[in-house]
C-alpha cells in the first residue's frame, strides 16, 4: 500500500510536466499564435478577443498559471472552430477510441497468446521459426499500410467490411462490430507481434521450472500444464507489455482512425491540427498523455496483484 | 553475426536501401516530380516498372527519391537524439545527484507521451517540414537514449576498473570519457539501430498524415497518402511504397537484432 501511494505521488511531477509541455506547444508556434489560428485576414475584433483570452501580453509563467488553474477545474478551454468546450469534445471522442483499443487488444491476444505458446512448446521447430518470422514482419509493418491493404482486400476486392465510418454499440451492436472489424484487425495485428515475442520468451523462462515438471509428473494433461501452470506464471511480463501497449494504442490510433474515418481522439487531434484549433490540440494531447500515465500505473497495480513476490516486497 | 541468415538478410536489405538512396535517383530515366499527362495511372510496364501515379509520375523514381528522404530523416533524428540523450544519460548515471534527478524527471515527462502523439504535437506547433519532422522524432527518441545510457553508466561505474581509475588519480571527466563512455556504448549502438527502424515508420506516419515532408517532394508516407484516393483504380500505388517501408524497417530491425546478439548478449537472452 505504501509503495502504491509512493507510485501515485511520483506521478504528480510527471503530470505537471505533461501539462507544461502541452501548454508550451502553443508557445512553440512560430510568430503570433492568434494569426496562425485565425489567418492573416481575420476580423480584428476576433483577433483581439482571442488575444485577450490567451493573455498573450502576459509573461509565460502567468499565462501557464492561469491555464493550469482552469485545467484543474476541468476547463480545457473552447474550440476556436466550433465554440464547444474542449473537454466535452474530447470526452465524446474518447468512447470510440476506447472501443477500438479494447477490440484491438482482444484481436492481439487471440493471435499472440496461442502463437507464443506454440512457439515456446515447439522450440527450434518449424512452428517456432514461423512465429518468429511472423512477429518480426509484424513489427516491421506500418499499421496504416496494413489498413490500406485490408481495405484493398476486404472492402474493395471482396466487399465484406466497410472501409470507413462508425456505428455506436448502443444503437446497433452488429453494425458496430461490422465497422469495428477492419480498424481492430489493423491495430490488433500490429500489437500481436510484440506480445507474441514476449509470450514466447516468458514461457521459455517458465517451462523448465521444477513446478512444471511436478505438474507433468502428477499426470496432468499437457494442455492443462501449459495453460493453468505455465501461462499463469508467465503472465507478469505479458501483462506489463499489454499495459504499455494499451497506453501506446492511445497514440497509435491516430493514423488508424484517420484512415478509417473513426471519430475517436486520434482523428479529433489530427483534424484540430489541420484546422489550427490549438486549444483542441492541447486538450486532446493532455488528456491522452494523462490517460497513458494512468494506464501505466494501473498496469503496475495489476502486476503487483498477480505476483505475490511483489506484494510481499 | 555472419553465420545467422537473418543478420545477413538485414545487412543486405539495409545495403540495398542505402545504395538506392545514394545512386537511385541518378539511375532512373524520369525525374521524381516530372509529370506525364499522357501516361497517368499506368500499370507496371517495361517503361515504368512500378507504374505511374495520377499525374503520370514514375513510381520507381519517386520511391528511390523517397528512400533518400526517409533515411535522411531517420538518421538525422536518431543521430540528434543520440548526440544529446547519450551524454545526458552517461553524466546522470556516472555522477547521480540533483542533476540526475532533475534531468531524468524531464526524460520521464517525454516518455509519458505516446511517441507519435508527441511527434504530432511538435510538428503541429512548428509546422510541417522535413526538418521539423526530424526534430519531432528526435525529441521522441531522446529519452530512450538517455535512459539506456544512464542505466549502462550506472552498471559500468560500479566496476573495479573505474575504482582503479579513481585510485590512480584520474579526474571525474577522464573517468567518464575513458572508462565509462567506451564501455557503455554497445547497448546505445544497438538501440540506435532499432530506433532507426521506428523513426522511419514515424516519419512515414507524419508524411502520411500530411505533417511530414511536403509534396511535391516524394516520401513513402505521402505517396501512400496519395494512393488512398485511387485504391480501386491503381492498387500498385499502395503496394510499392508500403513494400519499400516494410523491407527497410525489416532490414534495420534484423540489423538491430544481430547487433544486439553480438554486442549485448545479456539483453539478447531476454528479448
TrEMBL record, chain A:
Superkingdom: Bacteria
One Gene Ontology cellular component annotation held by this UniProt entry: plasma membrane
Record's bilayer topology term: Multi-pass membrane protein
GO molecular function: dipeptide transmembrane transporter activity
InterPro entries: BPD_transp_1_N (IPR045621), MetI-like (IPR000515), MetI-like_sf (IPR035906)
Keywords of the record: Cell membrane, Membrane, Transmembrane, Transmembrane helix, Transport
Location(s), subcellular: Cell membrane
Residue ranges annotated for the ABC transmembrane type-1 domain, each copy included: 94-303
Ranges that cross the membrane: 100-121, 133-156, 176-194, 234-260, 280-306
Pfam families in alphabetical order: BPD_transp_1 (PF00528), BPD_transp_1_N (PF19300)
Family: Belongs to the binding-protein-dependent transport system permease family.
UniProt-recorded name of the protein: ABC transporter permease
Automatic annotation (TrEMBL), chain B:
Source species, domain of life: Bacteria
PROSITE patterns with a match to the protein in the record: ABC_TM1 (PS50928)
Gene3D superfamilies the UniProt entry points to: MetI-like
Segments crossing the lipid bilayer: 71-97, 109-128, 236-256
Cross-referenced Pfam families: BPD_transp_1
Record bears the keyword GTP-binding: no
Entry keywords, A to Z: Cell membrane, Membrane, Transmembrane, Transmembrane helix, Transport
One of the GO biological process terms: transmembrane transport
Domain ABC transmembrane type-1: 67-256
Subcellular localization: Cell membrane
Membrane topology, from the record: Multi-pass membrane protein
SUPFAM superfamilies in the record: MetI-like
Major location category of this protein: membrane
One GO cellular component term noted in the UniProt record for this chain: plasma membrane
Family: Belongs to the binding-protein-dependent transport system permease family.
UniProt protein name: ABC transporter permease
Species, as recorded: Limobrevibacterium gyesilva
Species classification: Bacteria, Pseudomonadati, Pseudomonadota, Alphaproteobacteria, Acetobacterales
